Amino acid sequence: MANEITVSLKLSVAKSFLVHSENPSTQSVTMNGTTATGGVQTIGATGEVLVVSDVGTCGYAYFRNTDATISVDIGTGTAGAFVAFLRLKAGECAVCRLGTNAPTARSVSSTVNLQYFILAD
Fold first, then answer.
1. Which pLDDT score is estimated for 79?
2. Which of 81, 85, 59 is nearest to 72 (CA)?
3. Given 44, 51, 103, 111, which residue has the most CB atoms within 10 angstroms?
């Protein structure tokens, strides 16, 4: 089969003189793998390796910060070696294709619950 994953995206902004809109874009993507992993993980301020079981090569991923006030960063590495590539403020979500098989997350303070779902590439 082909085109098992469908990704839809729309971005628009209107604030003061800043007005921009991208037309809704939908694309279909082939999923070579047959597995996925995910759940909800408590993330601390020092960084946590996300549990990625049953997925050999990470592909598309969905992340949602379930916290009402605290932001969470998604990235690679932990502690002093952590490098963020994505920040989710309270309640935000994002979809991306991962370039690592060992994604990590770090709360900007305290702890947050991060919901995630990672598809095999």
1. 82
2. 85
3. 103
pLDDT at residue number 1: 76
Cα 37 from Cα 54, distance rounded (Å):
7
Residue reference for tokens 């590539």: 85
Report whether 118 contacts 33 (CB < 8 A). no
| β-sheet with 58-65: strand ranges across | 36-43, 112-120, 58-65, 93-97
What is the maximum alpha-carbon separation in the chain? 48
Output the six-digit token pair for 58. 């990470």
pTM score > 0.90 for this model? Answer: yes
Token pair 């932001």 is found at: 71
pLDDT on residue 40: 97
Can you name the CATH fold of 33-120? Jelly Rolls (2.60.120)
On whether the CB atoms of residues 5 and 29 are closer than 8 A, the answer is yes
- Give me the average pLDDT of each 10-residue run along the chain (121 residues): 91 96 93 94 94 94 97 92 96 96 95 97 91
